[in-house]
Amino acid sequence: MPAASILIDESSGATTPSLLFAAFQNSSLEQQLAFGEDREGEDDLRQLRYPITPERLVGWCVLSGELLNIPDAYAIAPDCPYRFDESFDRRFDYRAVSVLVVPLRTTEGTVVGVMQLINRKHDPGARITPATAAELVRSFDRFDQQLIEALASLAAVCVERTRLLEGQQKQIDSMISLLAGAIDAKSPHTGRHCSRVPELALMLAEAAEACESGPLGEFHFTDEKDWREFRAAAWLHDCGKISTPEAVVDKATKLETAYNRIHEIRTRFEVLLRDARIAQLEAQLAGGDGQQLQQEYERRAQQLQEDFRFVAACNLGSEGMDPEALERLRQLAGVTWWRHFDDRLGLAGRRLPAAPSRWLRCRLRSHCWPTSRGIAFPVRPRSCPIPPGGSRCRRRSCCTTRARSTTSRSCGARSPRRSSTRSAST
User: Fold this and answer.
1) What is the CATH number assigned to the segment(s) 3-140?
2) How far is Cα 18 from Cα 312, in angstroms, rounded to an integer?
3) Span 44-68, pLDDT tens digits
4) pTM (predicted TM-score)
5) How far apart are CA 52 and CA 54, in angstroms?
């Protein structure tokens, strides 16, 4: 059996194009290593790289894409651009005679490496030395050449497939990192968070895998596939933010979306304070005690100021609230205010309340909505459901619900009166 090796072009991304030993077989060298003469030679051979230059046989084969069938490596014609490298023979006490170098050509015609065979033996079990090489070796004939060309085609397909799979994995990894970068760029407050988490996660995983005792003593990844899945999970731990609105990602308070809705709450408290002032003045005109009415107004104003400060503090608070604060917030949610104008005016058609939001109003046409076919289907609700967040309907023709209550009365179809009440904190 001749000595055979496959050298792969590793020029991609390298400053100096070179060929790397991907696989090799040499029975004479294996016997030499088994005899203990040079056990470090195999490792040295795997680290050996050949520059892709026309002076070398393998380099010329890669650059030209042509097959080389040389009967005697030491008898190459002087006018040939290539020469045989004798350093390998001197290093391993070997003698190369016949050489066959076949390019590994992909389906697109690209040369990705070479398959090199040295010393076609008469006796496959013979051990070649510099003294016995001429007697034990013959040149490669036409049948050998055709057979090796077919094997080289199969090897080229394997190399191409492997590189395609590696390229696919790199593309997926680059898309994952691009997605993480887009998430980091979405908010300046969490910049580089998605890139720091994978580094910390890998450091923790390596430290956990290094543990030999304790709760993490049996923790380990079986193969590179597990590591790759772990890295992808670390990169994509925050991928949901890519579809989250920026106002939600950057929100600093509980009521903040595109703007801080605490301003709406404050406006409703202003309305309640204005109503208290109007009630005081109307009572004075009716002949009431002015001093007593003034004291009641001041108490009401002080109470509204304290209630608004409490709501504002809840807006800035932590994720949890104690039961007393929740109960006080429910009581404030029961305070009503008067609305005199139609809240559907000035809205685009697509922003009008749909059927699931029928708790907002109780007019008969309000329970019909257009479909994609332009047909209005009436909806006859049996009751007004409580909307998310504890909002409630305050039309006199509709039910009167309490915050987060499960009871409601039947929703009538009578025409609403001129005014209605709304909650002060919704």
Assistant:
1) 3.30.450.40
2) 69
3) 566 677 788 888 888 899 999 999 9
4) 0.53
5) 7
pLDDT number for residue 426: 45
Residue intervals of the chain classified under CATH 3.30.450.40 are 3-140
The Cα 63–Cα 69 span in angstroms is 16
Structure tokens, 319:
């994720």
- The predicted-structure confidence for 198-225, as pLDDT tens digits, reads as follows 999 999 999 999 898 888 888 889 888 8
CB under 8 Å to 242, separation ≥6 — which residues? 179, 182, 183, 186
DSSP states of 108-149: TS-EEEEEEEE-EESSTTPPP-TTTHHHHEE---HHHHHHHH
Phi/psi for 101 (5° steps) reads -120, 120
DSSP assignment letter at 7: E
Contact between 265 and 332 under an 8 Å Cβ cutoff? The reply is: no
User: Of the candidates 239, 253, 399, which has an alpha carbon nearest to the alpha carbon of residue 313?
Assistant: 253
Distance, in Å, from the CA atom of 386 to the CA atom of 405, rounded to the nearest integer, reads: 8
